Amino acid sequence: MATTDVKVIGAWPSPFVMRARIALNIKSVDYEFLQEQLGAKSELLLKSNPVHKKIPVLIHGDKPICESLVIVQYVDEVWASGPAILPSDPYERAIARFWAAYIDEKWFPSLSGIARGPTDEAKKAAKEQVVEGLALLDDAFVKCSKGKAFFGGDRIGYLDIALGCFLGWVRVTEKTSHLKLLDESKTPNLVKWADSFCADVSVKDVMPETDKLAEFAKVLMAKFKAPPPS
Amino acid sequence: MATTDVKVIGAWPSPFVMRARIALNIKSVDYEFLQEQLGAKSELLLKSNPVHKKIPVLIHGDKPICESLVIVQYVDEVWASGPAILPSDPYERAIARFWAAYIDEKWFPSLSGIARGPTDEAKKAAKEQVVEGLALLDDAFVKCSKGKAFFGGDRIGYLDIALGCFLGWVRVTEKTSHLKLLDESKTPNLVKWADSFCADVSVKDVMPETDKLAEFAKVLMAKFKAPPPS
């Protein structure tokens, strides 16, 4: 058992949980990973996040912190002596926060919609929105990275974490829906970035293998389609 | 014409625009207020926020900053020598960010739903969600304010701005839907806080009068109900 006062309540396939874990890895903070089971919620989760009852929750000492982007900012501020996650310049911080909000509010719902849209038309529209969004993010990458490997420059930063956590699910979606989303001809910068991101020391041990994640996706989809228990 | 390098693209009835204006007022920053007209979008807005095409946009020098909570954090960081908007303690910052996200993602959509829900049942459910949310926020107020007048303590802070900007619309909703949302018996702390918030020097000149806002709401509702132009 880890002797640490930092715990993450989560589950390995969750991109949002991955954000918290990558942030802690960047800061070299040891943590205990408490995995929730699909379809069940632990007492600790319900007690720690009574409003949303969702993972991830970071527990630092006896304090629960909820919502993945809030956790990433908290980790950056508490372990301030480690590598910075948010840019130091207020305008660059604002740009990173803007795109992170775009990813969560617009782009990720479309990514989910490719597999889970109610009709074929809705799925097609979702796919187009994802591709358009990636083109916008490719442009944003050019502006933010200034020729370096990451949105954050030489190191993985806030926006890298916000987008990069979805790369496993992008690959699963490409595989199961027979699509090309990250395309060398349309988003050449993001294609290169995705490789750098997944190879990074703070990421590689928490980024799930595509095949394993695809297996999990099958279980998840079956669960969505199953009638509710009577 | 104001000789300032700070501009806010907005509209007086918008709660999100109010957030940017209150933040600038707290920091005593002069700004030019460029009002958009209902149903039209200026060239400057389209150029400054090409992704969402929405107000508010803060323009600082030649740099546009979009999304109201991103703007508030930017203002706090750029004019750092003025009164602090976010708490200085990382955990208190995380709590403020958590509730601000809750307000935008859960609570405000319900508030809108009271007048705009598709059926009477949906409107009733929205009303219940708003009341439940206010009870949660009343509890949060007790924890955050520690006996002081505001979520932020002695002064208006991030969470005060995030919630307080909706008080005009809460009052309009109470009036037009014949409801009591902020109720002395259920949310006694928020009732008192709302008075303090609206009376604050950084707020009182940007908080619209209820009657004027109710008139605007009528125009807006008529617009929603009108068939699209052919």
Protein model, in words:
- The structure is a homodimer of 230-residue chains.
- By secondary structure, chain A is of the alpha+beta class.
- Chain A is built from nine helices and four strands, in the order E-H-E-H-E-E-H-H-H-H-H-H-H.
- In chain A, strands 2-1-3-4 form a four-stranded mixed sheet.
- In chain A, helix 1 runs parallel beside helix 3, helix 4 (90-116) packs antiparallel against helix 5 (120-145) and helix 7 (167-176) crosses helix 9.
- Chain A is globular.
- The mean pLDDT of chain A is 95.
- Chain A binds chain B through residues 51-52, 60, 63, 65-67, 70-71, 73-74, 77-78, 90-91, 93-94, 97-98, 101-102, 136, and chain B through 51-52, 60, 63, 65-67, 70-71, 73-74, 77-78, 90-91, 93-94, 97-98, 101-102, 136.
List keywords for this structure.
4 strands, homodimer, 9 helices, globular, four-stranded mixed sheet, 230 residues, 7% strand, alpha+beta
Topology:
Two copies of one chain form a homodimer.
Chain A lengths: L5 E5 L4 H12 L5 E4 L7 H6 L8 E4 L2 E4 L1 H11 L11 H27 L3 H26 L12 H7 L2 H10 L11 H12 L10 H16 L5
Parallel strand pairs in A: 1-2
Antiparallel strand pairs in A: 1-3, 3-4
Helix pairs in contact in A: 1-3, 4-5, 4-6, 7-9
Describe the structure concisely for a colleague.
With 230 residues, chain A is α+β, with helices and mostly antiparallel strands. Chain A is 55% helix and 7% strand.
